[in-house]
């Protein structure tokens, strides 16, 4: 979502921004910069065995990514596609994608937006150009391979107090199907991903959320307390999660079907390659490709190898903190795991009214990143992706 140690502060700012319709005005592109109980196998970090390097960043255009900025989608065709609304999902942060292509119909894009102070889920058809509101008081999206759509729906459509906005998890078998309530009590939920036919949801509370699983309607169980989802394995059977630091950050692989913790890695003295800052958080919303997991960490990203009964920290790659003070978030990769896209908040310029955020594409082999256009951080550019597996 965001750096875990600063989650409460950043989310609070996003929630306040969510109460108004987004500012449609965007400045020009940013300038380039260089610079459940069960047996657990535990592995500790080792500074000597970890590759550490700085990612170099230059100006350019994003070419590997489908992404949105304001009300446009890039990467699907030679020209940007115009949407009927502005992609805007502050209530979910990065626990959930802001826009997702329907896996059962790639011509259909579902995205979070705002309309007259109300969060809404919108559906855009690229074939016909039709763009319509599917539901009001709704946000956070998850599509499964069979075309079932899950999202959160508040008890009331208008957000009066973002910190107190309870509702239910809703599932539709298709866009046109009747909504079915999967929750038994109204709480603050963020729908994140399908793991096969199981639904992964963050249940918000004070501090870190609980990660819960729905095995079906009204069949909820806790997968991990005080934890957030980084990524699902390609087969959807395992979840790579990040836990509330106590006192150092820990990541684990958990069996989605039964909640058993299979593997755990605890950081032990690893530092960022730029300035030697200790790694004190692992962010949610990463990528799992093959036996590799990529996640945001303090000042950059980490590459983990996930083997049988073992998690190995293989690389720590940093970005210039004077240019990107919050490091990298919402990392997504191509099928090879070599190329990743990430959000990066830019250092605020003197007298600028707000910070700005840009997307960047990185080649982890060449250790080179291309920085794309920026937008105000309360309404940042976002990648279009589907974290659900398979």
Low-confidence residue ranges: 1-47
How many separate structural domains? 1
Q: Over all CA atoms, what is the radius of gyration?
A: 19 Å
Major sheet: arrangement of strands: 1-22-21-20-19
Q: What is the CATH homologous superfamily assignment?
A: TolB, C-terminal domain
CATH-level-2 architecture = 6 Propeller
Q: Estimate the mean pLDDT confidence.
A: 89
How is the biggest beta sheet arranged? 5 strands, mixed
Strand content: 35-45%
- CATH level 1 name: Mainly Beta
The helix content, as a percent range, equals under 10%
Q: What general outline do the C-alpha atoms trace? A: globular
CATH topology: Neuraminidase
Give the class from helix and strand content and strand pairing: mainly beta
Instruction: Give the distance, in angstroms, between the N- and C-terminal Cα atoms.
Output: 22 Å
Separate helix tally: 1
| Record field, number of beta strands | 31
Descriptive overview:
With 390 residues, this protein is mostly beta strands. It has one domain (4-383): Neuraminidase. 3% of the residues lie in helices and 44% in strands. The chain has one helix at residues 7-17, and strands at residues 41-44, 51-54, 56-59, 67-69, 72-74, 81-82, 99-102, 105-115, 118-125, 131-136, 138-143, 149-154, 167-172, 180-181, 189-195, 198-203, 210-214, 220-224, 227-232, 238-243, 250-255, 261-266, 287-289, 292-297, 300-307, 310-318, 329-333, 339-345, 356-363, 368-376, 382-383. A 5-stranded mixed sheet has the order 1-22-21-20-19, with no helix packed on it. A 5-stranded mixed sheet has the order 2-26-25-24-23, with no helix packed on it. A hairpin with a 2-residue loop joins strand 7 (99-102) and strand 8. The longest helix has 11 residues, at 7-17. The two termini are 22 Å apart. The model is unreliable at 1-47 (pLDDT under 50).
């Amino acid at each position: 979502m965001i750096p875990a140690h600063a989650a409460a502060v950043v989310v609070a700012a996003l929630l306040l921004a969510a109460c108004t319709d987004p500012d449609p005005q965007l400045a020009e592109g940013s300038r380039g910069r260089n610079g459940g109980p069960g047996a657990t196998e535990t592995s500790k970090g080792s500074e000597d065995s970890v590759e550490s390097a700085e990612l170099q960043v230059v100006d350019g255009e994003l070419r590997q990514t489908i992404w949105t900025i304001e009300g446009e989608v890039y990467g699907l065709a030679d020209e940007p596609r115009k949407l009927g609304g502005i992609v805007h999902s502050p209530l979910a942060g990065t626990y959930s994608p802001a826009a997702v292509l329907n896996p059962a119909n790639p011509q259909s894009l579902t995205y979070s937006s705002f309309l007259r102070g109300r969060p809404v889920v919108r559906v855009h058809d690229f074939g016909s150009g039709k763009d319509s509101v599917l539901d009001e008081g709704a946000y956070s999206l998850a599509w499964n391979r069979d075309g079932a759509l899950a999202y959160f729906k508040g008890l009331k459509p208008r957000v009066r107090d973002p910190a107190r906005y309870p509702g239910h998890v809703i599932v539709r078998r298709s866009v046109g199907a009747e909504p079915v309530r999967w929750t038994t009590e109204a709480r603050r939920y963020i729908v994140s991903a399908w793991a096969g036919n199981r639904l992964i949801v963050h249940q918000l509370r004070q501090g870190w959320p609980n990660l819960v699983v729905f095995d079906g309607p009204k069949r909820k169980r806790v997968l991990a307390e005080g934890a957030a989802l980084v990524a699902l394995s390609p087969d959807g059977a395992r979840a790579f999660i990040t836990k509330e630091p106590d006192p150092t950050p820990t990541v684990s692989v958990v069996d989605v079907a039964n909640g058993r913790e299979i593997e755990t890695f605890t950081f032990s003295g690893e530092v960022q390659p730029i300035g030697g800052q200790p790694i004190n958080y692992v962010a949610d919303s990463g990528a799992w490709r093959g036996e590799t997991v990529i996640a945001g960490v303090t000042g950059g990203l980490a590459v983990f190898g996930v083997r049988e009964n073992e998690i190995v920290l293989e690389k720590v790659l940093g970005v210039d903190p004077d240019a990107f003070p919050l490091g990298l978030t919402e990392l997504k990769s191509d099928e090879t795991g070599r190329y990743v896209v990430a959000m990066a908040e830019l250092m605020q310029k003197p007298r600028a009214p707000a910070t700005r955020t840009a997307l960047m594409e990185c080649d982890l082999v060449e250790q080179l990143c291309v920085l794309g256009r920026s937008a105000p951080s309360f309404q940042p550019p976002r990648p279009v992706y589907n974290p659900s597996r398979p």
